[in-house]
Amino acid sequence: AQLVRRPRQYQHYTTATTLDIFALASTFPSFFPPSIPRIDRERRLVDDYRPPSAEQLDKASASLDWLRRVSCPLVTGLEHVPRGRQLLFVGNHALFGALDIPLTVAEIYRGTGVLVRGLAHPIIFTIPPPPRYPRPNEESALWSPQYYRKFGAVPASAMNLYRILQRGESALLYPGALREAFKKRDEVNQIFWPERPEFVRMAIKFGAVIVPFATLGPDEAVRVVWQAGDDISNPLVATAVRQYTDMLWPPGENRSDSDAAGVVPPVLAPALPPRFYWRFGEPIDAALYSDALDDRSVCEELYGRVRG
């Protein structure tokens, strides 16, 4: 009971919050004052971002060649994505998200010329990679905080998504967030999206085109060695679980908090990787629904189309 800590907030604020962040942001653009250090840092990640050069993008894409050779990705549907429009890509999260996110961003760029700004779990920006990976201060190190920041990622929150769209930039969103990234053995390729369609309302507000997509393959590229509820007598597994939970939720957090939802990171091991597939669905032009911004039934219908 003392080994595994549970998070207070198990999903990204983008989709899990019970506050109407959209209404707050629309009514009070400076709802969160910049004097709050965390909010100020996140705001600067959004507002001070400068896209990498073409040379840097090519170098980053080349760093993924080993993953392409292993997974032989097949990407379809990007030919239908409109050019010259603001885009909001919305899709399913793979286990831990480490295998699919970099390739998703890279393939979208290769297919459309658009560098999307991903909304990533805040832990990405504070925790250095394991020692077996390059040092975290090397900007070219895949999965390092610097790598994510260089290519436009920001901590996932409703306010950050709002700011990105407000700036006219394109974004990549995984509504399932941490719950979807920490799937169990019998939940492969399942989605766990919230009920509130707030990102749909934001897309309508800024006239963005929503591009739903599905990813298959990364979930089968790893196997779950341990998950919540399994025996934890193996000392190697116990150590791995403790390290994971220490990274995600610092010691001393109130484990009995009523918001705790039982989402615990599984321990994974590599498996024989299958082929990876990306299927981009029919784009939805949210600008066509500008008169339905506050119509919940229309927003929920669009949300259902995105979710499939």
Features:
308 residues, two-stranded antiparallel sheet, single chain, alpha/beta, eight-stranded mixed beta sheet
Provide the fold topology.
Layout: H1 13-16, H2 21-27, H3 37-47, H4 54-62, H5 65-71, E1 74-76, E2 87-91, H6 100-112, E3 117-120, H7 145-150, E4 154-155, H8 158-166, E5 171-173, H9 177-181, H10 198-206, E6 209-216, E7 222-226, H11 235-248, E8 267-270, E9 277-280, E10 284-285, H12 296-307
Parallel strand pairs: 1-9, 2-5, 2-6, 3-4, 3-5
Antiparallel strand pairs: 6-9, 6-10, 7-8
Helix pairs in contact: 8-10
How does this model look, in words?
With 308 residues, this protein is an alpha/beta fold. It is 34% helix and 13% strand. The protein contains 12 helices and 10 strands. The chain has helices at residues 13-16, 21-27, 37-47, 54-62, 65-71, 100-112, 145-150, 158-166, 177-181, 198-206, 235-248, 296-307, and strands at residues 74-76, 87-91, 117-120, 154-155, 171-173, 209-216, 222-226, 267-270, 277-280, 284-285. The strands form 2 sheets. Strands 1, 2, 3, 4, 5, 6, 9 and 10 form an 8-stranded mixed beta sheet that branches. Strands 7-8 form a two-stranded antiparallel ribbon. The longest helix has 14 residues, at 235-248. The relative contact order is 0.21.
